[in-house]
Amino acid sequence: MNLNTRITGPAWAGINSTVDIIADLFAELWYDLISDIEYESRIKWWVNFFDVNISDKKEKYLTKKVDIILAFNTESLERQLQSLKKWAAIIVNKKWLDKLTAKWIDLSDFNILDLEISDKYDNTYLLWIYALYLNLDIDIITENIKKVFAKKWADIVENNINIVKNIFETYKIPNKSDLKIWRIWQPKELIYGNRSLTYWAIEWGLEFYSAYPMTPASTILSEVINSKKVKYIQNEDEVAVANSALWASFTWARAMCGTSGWWFALMTEALSFAVQAEFPITVVLSQRAWPSTGTPTYHEAWDINFALNPTFGDFNHVVMYPSSLEEAYYFWWLALNIADKYQTQVILLMDKQSSELIGTVDKLTTPAIDRWIILENPPIDYKRYELNESGISPRVKVGTKNWDFIASSYEHDEYWATSEDPELKKLFTEKRFKKLDNFFKKEWFSGFEVINSNAKKIIITTSFTSYTAKEFVKNNPEFWLIIIKFLKPLDERLLEDLRDKQEVIFVENNYSWQIENYITKELGLKYIPWLKISHMRKYDLFPFYIEDFEELKK
Length: 554
Description:
CATH class of the largest domain: Alpha Beta
Helix content: 25-40%
CATH architecture of the largest domain: 3-Layer(aba) Sandwich
CATH topology of the largest domain: Pyruvate-ferredoxin Oxidoreductase, domain 3
Distance between the termini: 27 Å
Strand content: 15-25%
CATH superfamily of the largest domain: Pyruvate-ferredoxin oxidoreductase, PFOR, domain III
């Protein structure tokens, strides 16, 4: 079974709570699901929609085609008609449907499930017609109502439950779905991208977070605040955000900050300081559609070049890009460990899709914290910037005897004293770059994932596009899929997997081929004469759907 439900309407109509109940219900029954939310920056009165794609076969992907739509006004329903499959179910308040049919729009190809609704609980009526249409158990539904509306007044919960019971007793479905929805196994955990990022940090090691709320990174701050376990500050701008995180790092705290879009530009001077002072710092950069403030609530991956080259001068750092909800969870742990271990700067790339996508996950386990070289009893002549073979100098916890040093933006010697000596400048430049030399030979993980390695045509992509790409490759074995998870350093073992292939197709959500240009240059792909390099770009504000990948077969 693969069922795509679209919930559409203005923001005030209760779309989010409707989605929460549908998602919770199917996760409770052990179904797999992922979602996509699309909303305009003029949020309250405009057309928004939320897709929930549900499967009993571990199929997680996004599709343009809709099986069931719950519409909360006429404009939203009309806008979505072109996405409906033939005989799709339309669940709608009759007054909105009448306004649509008055325009002489033909709905004869659809299964209409309408109801005259006169009170304020539109979303509950439509939701439970949906449940009745799918032959769902009323007891599971009422339990989900109680769960989702737990923070509301008891009479609201009771009114909603009474609506459900009335619908189940009186509403007659003309053409019920023939799907059999039952409990498959134990409940699955349901999570969204930014919460998945934050979960590990809250439980295992994050000690300080700073941010100025900015879509789509804002909910990271919300999750940190709600946890009541992590020190945080909501700063007045991103200059203060980055600098407060740096000073937290200086005092030995595991620190992270987050932002979106061009506000990352305000952090770049602080990041340059972090390179010179060798502060470990992790930054979440959740991308959205550019340029300038752009279309701020929509999806594109425009900041890849910016993340790779985030400031002036020579800058060596790590750029990670998780490709699933599970990886979003583990990568925050990994980002904090890498920052500490190499005393470097880690940029954790997200985007609007990955920050806000809701989905089910398998059981998540918690790895260990690794803060690397710590001197418990530093000597009286402790060298904070000691020159050694690895380029990584021993750190000391704040407050330890002999720990003190000055962190400066100026070049310095091993003790931190400012210096403009040419030989020292050469040595310390090499020291800072040396830390990340042979990165993947030192570590236990790969910078990319390979699926279906026997094919000759290769799709290369990143981020949560991988959900839909995996489904496409599973059904089209002539394609091989490579998912890039570390953009910097780039895992050069990737070149060995590309040498004997016929074609590589870069799939990315930007106009200027940012991933293609970067990887092609870094690995010298244009010098492989038999390798055809092509791309599929998308920059229309929406993520890749399975129908987009079908274009690759033409």
